[in-house]
Design goal:
Largest sheet: 8 strands, antiparallel, barrel
CATH class of the largest domain: Mainly Beta
Order of helices and strands: HHHHHHHHHEEEHEEEEEEEEEEE
Helix content: 25-40%
CATH topology of the largest domain: Lipocalin
Mean pLDDT: 75
Strand content: 25-35%
Length: about 375
């Protein structure tokens, strides 16, 4: 069973967890949904003899490192509301039915659940492990982050190891808490390795050190019968996008407005709050760039609705693309460097900065 199949089951369950009842915190509800599903399959696994030693060690480390005991304790906030508890139980039931329909063993299903991206609570929802969880997400938006990734820029020796860049898909949380599909870049190395997190190219210790430290971010790729394939937990699978791109040519320029839109909220789980945030860059062929962004939120209650909006002050500067790096020097003296991936033959559709997609807009 691969992570994509498990996440598709989670995606199907999220709307089923919704309803008219007052919503719990969306991040908590999602975390509890994952933990309760894990617990279901872990219990079934124990009835069949338990985890293999290596899997048992992996699961124990996950529970320790990602505060699973805290998630279980905070689930009482959901269980105290009968309607919310019923919604959660329906969500777990939806996932279980989807996984059981695939004939997956309960031990494998439990281990896979613990390895999914959304189950890494310390990274994706640290607020759940450090304090109380509010009854509903705040409507006040936060401005998009501006800091570029930390690390070293890929040098010529590293770039020479790269065959090309490809693209895969994964479920992601969108505006209102709905599950969307995220298209993200992957790095195909000449020796057959595949890196699923392009920010790994900035790892100070090099690729071997990154693979040792983050083995889950690595797999294999091949071309078989004219088809580009990636190694999953059940064997070779066709990569959703078959086109690959090499690094950008020297003095490559962009032209247009590119915007990334994201958000969160609890509409998908029966709530009335949603938050959207955007970050954008406008490039011109003469090497100039302007950057902006903002956020907005909406929350409804019996007394009406509250709409908030905030916009960051724009920055102007100049840019230069070198290999896989977009280097920007703003007029105020600040600088940023970001990994950039796009189709060098047609960069008008989208670009990816630090692995995040920015779609071109007309205005």
């Amino acid at each position: 069973m691969n992570h994509r199949a498990w996440m598709c089951a989670l995606a199907a369950a999220m709307p089923a967890a919704g309803g008219a009842a007052p919503p719990a915190d969306e991040a908590l509800l999602k975390a509890v949904l994952i933990v309760r599903t894990f617990d279901h399959f872990a219990a079934a696994c124990q009835r069949r003899g338990g985890f293999k030693p290596a899997d048992a060690s992996t699961v124990k480390a996950w529970e320790r490192d990602h505060g699973v005991a805290q998630i279980r304790a905070k689930a009482q906030a959901i269980d105290s509301e009968p309607a919310q508890k019923q919604q959660l139980e329906r969500g777990v039931s939806t996932i279980v039915r989807q996984i059981d329909a695939q004939g997956v063993s309960p031990c494998l299903a439990a281990v896979t659940a613990s390895r999914t991206r959304d189950a890494q609570f310390a990274a994706v929802a640290p607020q759940l492990l450090s304090g109380a969880v509010s009854a509903a997400p705040a409507a006040k938006p936060a401005l998009p982050a501006t800091a570029p990734v930390a690390g070293v820029k890929p040098d010529a020796a590293l770039l020479a190891q790269i065959d090309s860049f490809g693209f895969d898909t994964r479920p992601a949380m969108g505006i209102g808490g709905f599950i969307t599909t995220d298209i993200y870049p992957v790095v195909l190395f000449r020796d057959g390795r595949l890196l699923t997190d392009v920010e790994g190219l900035m790892f100070a210790g090099g690729m071997a050190a990154h693979q040792a430290a983050h083995p889950k971010d690595w797999t294999r790729w091949r071309r078989q019968g004219g088809e580009l394939q990636i190694a999953g937990e059940k064997g070779w699978e066709k990569l959703p996008f078959q086109s690959t791109f090499r690094q950008l040519p020297k003095d490559f320029r962009l032209d247009g407005l590119f915007r990334r839109l994201g958000g969160t909220g609890n509409v998908a789980v029966g709530g009335t709050a949603s938050v959207a945030a955007w970050n954008e860059y406008r490039f011109t062929p003469d090497g100039r760039v302007s950057r902006g962004g903002g956020a907005g939120g909406r929350a409804e209650s019996t007394g009406g609705s509250v709409v908030t909006r905030s916009q960051a002050a724009g920055q102007q500067g100049s840019y230069r693309i070198e290999g896989v790096m977009l280097n920007i020097r703003y007029d105020d003296g600040s600088e940023e460097s970001r990994l950039i991936i796009t189709d060098p033959k047609d960069p008008t559709g989208a670009i990816w900065l630090d692995g995040q997609g920015y779609a071109q807009r007309r205005r």
